[in-house]
Design goal:
Layout (H helix, E strand, L loop, with lengths): L12 E5 L4 H12 L3 E6 L4 H11 L4 E4 L5 H15 L4 E4 L14 H29 L2 E6 L3 H4 L5 H21 L4 E8 L5 H6 L3 H10 L9 H11 L10 E4 L8
Parallel strand pairs: 1-2, 1-4, 2-3, 4-5, 5-6, 6-7
Protein name: SDR family oxidoreductase
Organism: Szabonella alba
Family: Belongs to the short-chain dehydrogenases/reductases (SDR) family.
């Protein structure tokens, strides 16, 4: 895959949620290859991943073990990343959980858990980095949403609702903090075949049906998403804010 160079990202302080696996791991590697100073959080130990990234890129990401639903711990991790690398100038809210669920089975506890992971953590991560971005003269926040709510699929109504809310949140934050040169955009992937997706959700019939809806008939890999993230983080998109960038092989049509 062609690797573009975003020279303005070299030396930037980047913070990624869920940056040690799936799409997040590809994002971490992409920023490391741009020469950025990358910190990331996730619940499980990512030491082996950091070792692999150091060997592959010559740079070691800062791993901070954290449950993003714990707002205090998330804020502390962002503070630690800022102490190590300088104020966060690029925030990538990537961590999410698309656990399948049926409406009639959803309990209040599950509903709250899903929103805590898929929406609350996004808001409070943004809240934590914004003062540093204001003081530094600007920054970029990339909020991962999904095309799921636009497709009208059944099987994950709370997750779909959270992703719709992420787009709305992104627009609201873009408006509120545009005067500080803080840009906030949503990135909406299609069905990216991470190992988790393959293990839990992919079936031959389901994949065939989804590909039939795509204009482009190739499956999406995590590496297909990283270019969009780098673009939204870079000054190449300096006048782009409050927008939703879709990378889905042509399933949904926006505009």
């Amino acid at each position: 895959m062609t690797e573009a160079t975003f020279s303005d990202l070299r030396g930037q302080s980047v913070f990624i949620t869920g940056g040690g696996s799936g799409i997040g791991a590809a994002i971490t590697e992409a920023f490391l290859r741009q020469g950025a100073n990358v910190a990331f959080v996730q619940r499980s130990d990512a030491t082996a991943f950091c070792d692999a990234m150091e060997a592959a890129t010559g740079q070691r990401p800062l791993f901070l073990q954290c449950d993003i639903t714990d707002t205090g711990a998330l804020g502390a991790a962002i503070a630690a990343a800022s102490a190590a690398h300088g104020p966060v100038r690029v925030l990538v809210n990537n961590a999410a959980n698309d656990q399948r669920h049926a409406t009639l089975d959803v309990t209040e506890e599950f509903f709250q858990w899903s929103l805590d992971i898929n929406l609350k953590a996004y808001f409070f991560a943004a809240q934590a980095v914004i003062p540093g971005m204001q003081a530094a003269g600007g920054g970029s926040i990339v909020n991962f949403s999904s095309i799921s709510y636009m497709m009208g699929n059944a099987g994950y109504p709370v997750y779909a609702a959270a992703n719709a809310a992420i787009n709305s949140l992104s627009r609201s934050l873009a408006r509120e903090f545009g005067a500080d040169r803080i840009r906030v955009n949503a990135l909406m992937p299609g069905w990216v075949l991470t190992q988790k997706q393959k293990d839990l959700w992919v079936t031959p019939e389901g994949l065939e049906a989804h590909l039939a809806r795509q204009c482009l008939k190739d499956t999406l890999a995590p590496e297909d998403i990283t270019g969009g993230v780098l673009f939204l983080a870079s000054d190449l998109s300096r006048m782009m804010t409050g927008q939703a960038l879709v990378i889905d092989g042509g399933v949904v049509v926006t505009g």
